[in-house]
Amino acid sequence: xxxxxxxxxxxxxxxxxxxxxxxxxxxxxxxxxxxxxxxxxxxxxxxxxxxxxxxxxxxxxxxxxxxxxxxxxxxxxxxxxxxxxxxxxxxxxxxxxxxxxxxxxxxxxxxxxxxxxxxxxxxxxxxxxxxxxxxxxxxxxxxxxxxxxxxxxxxxxx
Length: 158
Ligand code: 4NP
Known about the structure:
Blueprint: E1 2-8, H1 14-28, E2 35-41, H2 53-60, H3 78-81, E3 84-87, H4 90-103, E4 109-110, H5 111-115, H6 132-157
Parallel strand pairs: 1-2, 1-3, 3-4
Bound molecules: 4-nitrophenyl phosphate.
């Protein structure tokens, strides 16, 4: 089993979107039973909440239902459990690196820099205080980088 954890700030917009999009892609590729996916936030503000309705809507418009996800905060244990720990922006990445420095385990990566293919952007911008276009852009960026991630997962699976 390969384990993937997406991390953003609140775990109600970007990382739940990535979580749902990757699951959908894995199902399409027949890999769903080989990869475990989850998401978490660096902050504890929204623990237990469903994804933001605007993220739910943007994902659903691409055929992905993320309504039954529940926000949680990233833990030290995640660094021992997950094979990929993927940060949405540089701020999340820097927070994850601080945890990694004290607990070791999986080295976090900046998701788009590691696996993005078609966009010249290294961060998934926080859409929380913006409009619908920002939420659609999150889906565009995440779909593209999930394709790159699946290529890497296939290599690991051998
Ligand atoms: P996320 O977006 O990190 O993509 O889940 C945010 C959600 C909530 C807040 C900020 C960003 N907030 O300030 O509550």
